[in-house]
Amino acid sequence: MAKLTCWQCRRDLSDEPRPISRQAVCQGCFEPIRCCYMCRAFDISHRSTCQEDRADPPLEKANANFCDFFSPGEPVRRVSPQPDKSDTSAALSALFEDELAVDAFEEDSQVIGGHDELDQKLKDLFGDG
């Protein structure tokens, strides 16, 4: 029996009884096992993502299905690891602490002459002042 791992959490599924039932779920993450992501015919580079021409692939590849061509194999799709929070925070800070954007905003504020002058121009434009 070939080694089988969950497409979502990579838990070993070799103890799962064969044939795999449509109701079978991974005991680690509770995702369906009999789904496109767990099938040998699943191929993300293929037009319909299924190499089996006679199959009618479902729209949601993670959902359990009744495909007659399902053959369990090594999952193609893997969940990307969670990014390190410090790296994410640093990237976010770098994005919003761009000095050029801050300088441009400050220059625009000086050209307008502050909020009071802008408010007055709006009131003059719409006749509220």
Outline the structure in words.
The protein is mainly α. The protein has two domains: 1-81, no CATH class; 85-126, no CATH class. Helices cover 29% and strands 0% of the residues. The protein is built from three helices and no strands. It has helices spanning 85-96, 99-112, 115-126. The longest helix is centred in the C-terminal third of the chain and has 14 residues, at 99-112. It is elongated, with a radius of gyration of 28 Å. The protein starts with 84 loop residues before the first helix and ends with a helix. The relative contact order is 0.13.
Q: What share of the residues does DSSP label as strand, in percent? A: under 5%
Mean pLDDT comes to 77
| N/C terminus separation | 82 Å
Helix proportion: 25-40%
* Overall outline: elongated
Overall domain count = 2
The radius of gyration computed from the alpha-carbon positions, rounded to a whole number of angstroms, is: 28 Å
Characterize the biggest β-sheet.
none
Outline the fold blueprint.
Elements: H1 85-96, H2 99-112, H3 115-126
Key phrases:
single chain, about 130 residues, mainly alpha, 2 domains, 3 helices, elongated
Summed up, what is this model?
By secondary structure, the chain is mostly helical.
